[in-house]
Amino acid sequence: MTIPPQVTASRYLERPAPSALADVVDVILDKGLVIDAYIRVSLVGIELLTIDARIVIASVDTYMRFAQAVNRMDLTETEVHGIPELMQDMTKSGAKGKASGAIEAAEEKFEQAFGRKHDKEESEDEGERRPGTRRPSRRRSSSSEEG
Amino acid sequence: MTTREPRTANAVATGRYLYGVVRADALAALEDAELGPDGFLLPVRHEGLCALTSAAPAELGREELARHADLTQRVFERVTILPARFGVVFSDADEVVAELLRPYQDQLTAQLDRLDGMVQVDVTCIHREEQALALLLRADRALAARRREANRSYMAAIRVGQRVAMGLERLRARDAAIARELLRRRALEERPSGMSHEHMFLHSAFLVRASDVGAFDDAVGELRRRLPHALTRAVGPRPPYAFVELRDERKEPTWA
After folding, report:
1. Do B66 and A21 touch (CB under 8 A)?
2. Which of A28, A57, A119, B11 has its CA 20 to 30 A from that of A6?
3. Would you call B87 an interface residue with chain A, using a CB distance cutoff of 8 Å?
4. CA-wise closest residue to B238 among A11, A21, A28
């Protein structure tokens, strides 16, 4: 059986490039015909090829980064697009469960540091600033003035 | 190397490195495949099967990884191959027969039949952060309205960020479903891998009939149009690495 590789002109598929090692590692390092007793490979040096892999676990730092990212964004288009499934019951999604531990820990830490309950998001006044309540763990944007 | 046991060191020095298994009668079709210098490829035959091997290199590093990928790709473009995982080395040709071709003969033959005319296409989809966030803000008015709260306090910022994280998670789930719905129509099987990027929502090998590669290509194009806020990469056709499986024949339960 022969598979002519170019029988159809692919418009979207990239031809495999054996020299693109990051791609190759993904495919042949842990898949393919194998009898476990006969694997002899030493992985020294190979893991360096996967430097583009970036996994970020949900954490307070991630939330801070996202908050700053949406804060910075220029919304030129404000109409609501038709993706209602993204809006349904946002506060009860699975992410909330995973996140709540980190949030509670952060709140506790915050309260310990400042000796009082943090401001509730439902009860804030737009213009008010309270010294000591802003404590971003990793600030990327220098601008803090509200528009 | 000093920590290796003598048998292993010997295997690396004089052993056979395995690239894959083909049908013995397919060898003739590989004559012009440029699979290395004369004498590089050392076929090991057993009945209707043939293991494609070479002398085991002393080291297995990047160069060997690229050679493995290149050689299996060239073979795959001519005949059906069960590609080996990188790094399989036998002590000698006899061991290739005794440990692979003979005990697994039925399984190898069945897999060659199953994978005749099949190709693998690997697809990864990753949200472009800025565009995904913009989509999220347009979809979630409350979030758009509250995003400036991040300036007010540490906890307010975390709440906004948490809502963004939840929204992105929903967007990943939605877009993964769209991608699967489009791609599975043109594929026979899918083997998902773990996500290796925080915005990745699809990382799968698809088994596609060679005759359907054009249709799969169209489906990838449609996916890119449907999800312009994602980076979609599809690489293939390549050998069906993710779809080769051997059950261990040597571990029969002794109590049976």
Report:
1. yes
2. A28
3. yes
4. A28
